[in-house]
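Section 3.1: Structural characterization of target chains.
Under the original work plan, the team committed to producing a structural model for every single-chain target entering the pipeline before any wet-lab resources were allocated. The record below documents one such target. The sequence was received from the expression subgroup and is listed exactly as submitted; it comprises 303 residues.
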Amino acid sequence: MNILEANNVSKAYAAHKALDDVSISIPKQSIFGLLGPNGAGKTTLIRIINQIIMSDGGEILINGEKLHPKHVNVIGYLPEERGLYKKMKVGEQLMYLAQLKGLSSGEARSRIKNWLDKMSLTEWAGKKVEDLSKGMAQKIQFIATVMHEPDLLILDEPFSGFDPVNANLIKDEIFELREKGATVIFSTHRMESVEQLCDDIAMINHSKKILDGTKKDIKKSYKSNKYQVDYKGQLTGLSPEFSIVETSVIEDDFSQAIIQVQNGQNPNQLLSELINKTEVHGFTEVIPSINDIFITIVEEAQS
């Protein structure tokens, strides 16, 4: 079942079309990557889901219900532009934001303590936000986003400003939240994070959805029948069905080649030929990364 469905959503600002008939479906308890270059329309869609702005056409469904003000409490939103009150103390600010989301003071106090402990920020509860480092403030904003335990989390560039250690901490928390039942919409330009985190993805470019599906199926559809071969010695005289795209020296006599296999041929045939011509030490199919696919699609759209 889908937790969120956007059906034919459109939005325009004067002559600029920010979203053009965009439809996406987000399965429950998944991590969904919302991708696209700057200005593609991702933030507009996120703001419509959060009821910050209204769409011009189409509809948003949450758990099968048309989007309604009550759905604010089942959503946690971490915007790219962070917004904490710099003069407030950390604990007071988290209490204020928790109560805005409907938590009682007792429940809020308990959850705040647990999250501050998790994030190694307990000693900062009485400090003003302006005294925090950027990374600490980011963690406080993340706590504010998740502590009411929303069904749907919308994270816009959640790793911005984090060092690798804290980025991994947040990744672990995202996985744990999903295991507990949350669904995550993850908007980012960092494709390595998409590779690590996302189950499903959709790509928006120039206000239109141009790609969506499971990460596995999308990568499979962009395979180009190329194989990476690690070998020792020489590699020449392959049949016309197999063409060497590029080669590089790994070390000493060890080299690596990318070989294109023509349609109608299979990897077993290539491997059989390689074994008769060189000393094979590694043989793997070249699977395009999400970053490779992203670049290919955006460049095709610009050409």
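The two ends are 38 Å apart (CA to CA).
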